[in-house]
C-alpha cells in the first residue's frame, strides 16, 4: 500500500524524535559532563538502646516468683518477679488493728465530751437553784427569819456549785483536747498504714516499659533487696546509633536529616534513621570509634535514631551510617 507524502513525513518526524530521546543522555553527558553526586560521609559506631537495671526497692526478702528467662518480650506493667511478702502482710495487719483501736479511741473521747457537756448543763441548773436559795436566805436573814449559820451554809453551797461548774467546764476543754489528740493519732496510724501498703507493693517487680529482658541476674530463692539486680530490660522499640562526625563536616550535618544505616549482621538491609542529636561540644575521638574519613583531633557526637520495628537491631551491635553532607550555611 502506497503511503501519502504527509504520512511519510509524520513517520519520519516520529523516528527522529525517538532517536533524539535515545541519544539525549549520552549527548548531555558529552556536552555538560556527569552531574555531581552529593557528597557524603560514612560514620560508624554501636547500636544503643535505653536499658534499665531492675531491682527491688525498700524491701528485702527471698525471691518467691521468677517466671521469665532472658530474651522474653514483656509489656509495661508485667510482673517480672516477687519476693516473700508474708512479713510485710503481717505488718499491714498489725497497722490495721492499731488503726481500728485509734478509731475506737476517737469514738470514746467524743462520747466523753458529750457526757461532760451534759454534766455542765446539770451543774448550771444546780448552781441556779442554789443561787435562788442564797437570795431567799439573804432576804430572810435581814428579818431574822433564818440564822446566820444557815445563811453561811447556803453561801458555801453556792460556792461549791460554782466550783463544780468551773471544774466540769474545764473537763469539756480537756475532752476536746483528747479528741484532737485521738484524731491526730488516727491520722498518724492511717499514714503508717498507707506507707506499709506502698511497701507491700514493692514486693512485686513490674516492667516499667515494654521491652526485652536482656539479662537475668537472679535466681529463685535468692535474697533480693535494694541494689540487687534482678533483670536488665532493653527498650528495642527506640534504638539509636552513637557515632562521631569530624569537625570539618559539622556545618554540613543537620538535625532531622534522613540517614541510611547498615550493619554487618544484615549487610543487605538498610535501616531508616534520622539525626536526633548533635553535640554542641567537641571531644577527642574515642578509642573505640573510628571515622572513615581522615582522623582529626576533634569530633562531635551524633545520635542517629533508627526505626527498629522487628527488633533486629540489638545494643552493642556495630553499625555504619551514610550521612549526606549538605551545603554549609544552608
Key words describing this protein structure:
6-stranded antiparallel barrel, UPF0194_transport, Putative efflux pump component, 13 strands, Beta-barrel_RND_2, 330 residues, alpha+beta, signal, 4-stranded antiparallel β-sheet, Elongation Factor Tu (Ef-tu), domain 3, single chain, coiled coil
Overview of this protein structure:
- With 330 residues, this protein is α+β, with helices and mostly antiparallel strands.
- The chain has two domains: 40-84 and 212-324, Efflux pump adaptor protein, beta barrel domain (Elongation Factor Tu (Ef-tu), domain 3, Beta Barrel); 86-201, Helix Hairpins (Orthogonal Bundle).
- It is 42% helix and 27% strand.
- The chain contains three helices and 13 strands.
- Strands 1-8-12-10-9-13 form a six-stranded antiparallel β-barrel. Strands 5-4-2-7 form a four-stranded antiparallel sheet, with no helix packed on it.
- Helix 2 (86-142) runs antiparallel to helix 3.
- The protein is elongated and about 165 Å long.
Secondary structure elements and their pairing?
Blueprint lengths: L4 H28 L7 E16 L5 E5 L7 E2 L4 E5 L2 H57 L5 H54 L2 E3 L4 E6 L6 E2 L4 E18 L11 E6 L7 E8 L4 E2 L13 E9 L11 E7 L6
Antiparallel strand pairs: 1-8, 1-13, 2-4, 2-7, 3-6, 4-5, 6-8, 8-12, 9-10, 9-13, 10-12, 11-12
Helix pairs in contact: 2-3
- Which bin fits the share of residues in helices? 40-55%
- What would you say the CATH architecture of the largest domain is? Beta Barrel
| CATH topology descriptor of the largest domain | Elongation Factor Tu (Ef-tu), domain 3
Give the count of helical stretches: 3
Please tell me the overall pLDDT: 86
Residue share in β-strands: 25-35%
Poorly predicted parts: 291-296
Task: Characterize the biggest β-sheet.
Answer: 6 strands, antiparallel, barrel
CATH homologous superfamily placement of the largest domain: Efflux pump adaptor protein, beta barrel domain
Termini, distance in Å? 64 Å
Total strand segments: 13
Numbering strands along the chain, what is their spatial order in the largest sheet? 1-8-12-10-9-13
* Total domain count: 2
Structural class: alpha+beta
Order of helices and strands: HEEEEHHEEEEEEEEE
Amino acid at each position: 500500500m502506497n503511503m501519502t507524502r504527509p504520512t511519510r513525513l509524520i513517520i519520519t518526524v516520529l523516528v527522529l524524535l525517538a532517536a533524539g530521546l535515545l541519544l539525549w543522555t549520552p549527548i548531555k553527558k558529552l556536552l555538560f559532563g556527569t552531574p555531581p553526586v552529593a557528597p557524603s560521609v560514612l560514620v560508624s559506631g554501636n547500636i544503643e538502646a535505653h536499658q534499665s537495671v531492675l531491682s527491688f526497692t525498700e524491701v528485702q526478702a527471698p525471691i518467691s516468683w521468677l517466671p521469665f528467662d532472658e530474651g522474653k518480650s514483656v509489656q509495661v506493667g508485667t510482673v517480672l518477679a516477687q519476693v516473700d511478702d508474708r512479713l510485710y502482710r503481717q505488718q499491714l495487719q498489725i497497722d490495721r488493728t492499731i488503726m481500728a483501736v485509734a478509731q475506737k479511741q476517737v469514738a470514746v473521747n467524743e462520747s466523753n465530751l458529750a457526757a461532760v457537756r451534759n454534766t455542765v448543763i446539770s451543774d448550771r441548773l444546780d448552781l441556779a437553784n442554789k443561787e435562788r436559795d442564797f437570795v431567799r436566805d439573804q432576804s430572810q436573814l435581814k428579818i431574822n427569819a433564818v440564822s446566820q449559820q444557815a445563811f453561811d451554809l447556803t453561801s458555801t453551797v453556792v460556792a461549791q456549785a460554782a466550783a463544780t461548774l468551773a471544774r466540769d467546764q474545764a473537763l469539756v476543754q480537756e475532752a476536746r483536747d483528747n479528741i484532737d489528740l485521738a484524731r491526730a493519732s488516727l491520722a498518724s496510724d492511717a499514714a503508717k498504714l498507707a506507707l506499709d501498703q506502698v511497701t507491700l507493693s514493692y514486693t512485686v517487680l513490674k516492667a516499667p516499659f515494654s521491652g526485652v529482658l536482656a539479662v537475668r541476674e537472679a535466681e529463685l530463692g535468692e535474697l533480693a533487696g535494694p541494689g540487687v539486680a534482678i533483670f536488665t530490660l532493653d527498650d528495642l522499640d527506640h534504638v539509636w546509633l552513637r557515632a562521631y562526625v569530624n569537625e570539618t563536616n559539622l556545618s554540613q550535618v543537620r538535625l532531622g536529616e534522613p540517614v541510611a544505616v547498615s550493619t554487618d549482621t544484615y549487610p543487605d538491609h538498610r535501616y531508616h534513621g534520622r539525626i536526633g542529636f548533635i553535640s554542641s561540644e567537641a571531644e577527642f575521638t574515642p578509642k573505640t570509634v573510628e571515622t572513615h574519613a581522615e582522623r582529626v583531633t576533634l569530633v562531635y557526637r551524633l545520635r542517629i535514631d533508627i526505626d527498629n520495628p522487628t527488633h533486629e537491631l540489638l545494643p552493642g551491635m556495630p553499625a555504619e551510617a551514610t550521612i549526606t553532607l549538605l551545603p554549609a550555611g544552608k
